[in-house]
Design a protein that fits this description.
Blueprint (H helix, E strand, L loop, with lengths): L4 E4 L6 E3 L9 H13 L5 H19 L5 E5 L9 E8 L10 H9 L10 E7 L2 E12 L28 E10 L7 E8 L5 H12 L3 E4 L3
Antiparallel strand pairs: 1-9, 2-3, 3-4, 4-8, 5-6, 6-7, 7-8
Helix pairs in contact: 1-2
Length: about 220
């Protein structure tokens, strides 16, 4: 398999693909145009500005991790981002010179000082290759925002039950790490959200997206 690879994933309805390679000086204009397009001509100026800011911040945040693809899931754009979805390639390194599904599971399930519970680990197979699914819940530092349902139609806005707001918000993550046959690199699908009331539906969405992962030689 060629060394230069690209990974793709299905894009759910309501998701915005974040422009990871767009020059930073063009990001604000992209975010405003995208927000106006998503909200339509009846979108209130404040709502457009809020969504544009959310998309801009989501892009800058995703760039720090260097994913191949990043999606801001906004099925109800007037309420902002419901979940973040990122796809990355993981190469062997000095700590993990040979990637295995077990090594990936151990890495993803390692608890931190912010972990709320031990991670849940499940092994299985995806069309792209043998994989592990890891669910993790931790206390994050992002401020609470409003949330809406997924594209199947949950219409209530909710605040995450985060206890003392001064201590952060509860963040749920679901990650899939897979090893495509013949590749030394692993594929990571990582999703996070604060919309705990929608946890089951968002988890099911990530499960569906995992089955769409594809690894192919990069063009050129």
């Amino acid at each position: 398999m060629p060394g230069s690879l690209t990974v793709s994933v299905g894009v759910p309805g309501g998701a915005v693909e974040l422009p990871l390679t767009l020059p930073t000086d063009g990001l604000a204009a992209w975010a405003e145009e995208t927000a106006r397009d998503r909200l339509g001509p009846e979108g209130e100026p404040r709502t457009v500005a809020d969504l544009a800011n959310a998309l801009r911040e989501a892009t800058l945040d995703a760039r720090r991790r260097g994913p191949v693809t990043a999606l801001s899931f906004c099925p109800h754009p007037e309420l902002g981002e419901t979940a973040r979805i990122e796809v990355s390639l993981i190469a062997p390194d000095a700590e993990r010179p040979e990637l295995t599904v077990k090594a990936l599971a151990d890495f993803l399930a390692t608890p931190t000082e912010r972990s709320m519970h031990p991670a849940t680990v499940d092994y299985g197979d995806l069309p792209i290759g043998p994989a592990v699914r890891v669910r993790h819940q931790y206390v994050g530092e992002r401020p609470a925002t409003r949330y809406a349902g997924d594209d199947e139609g949950v219409d209530a806005a909710v605040e995450p039950d985060d206890g003392d707001p001064g201590e952060g918000v509860i963040v749920q993550t679901v990650a899939y790490a897979a090893l495509p046959p013949g590749s030394r690199k692993a594929v990571l699908l990582f999703a996070s959200w604060q919309a705990l009331a929608l946890d089951e539906r968002l988890s099911e969405l990530v499960d569906r997206l995992a089955t769409t992962l594809r690894l192919e030689p990069a063009d050129g």
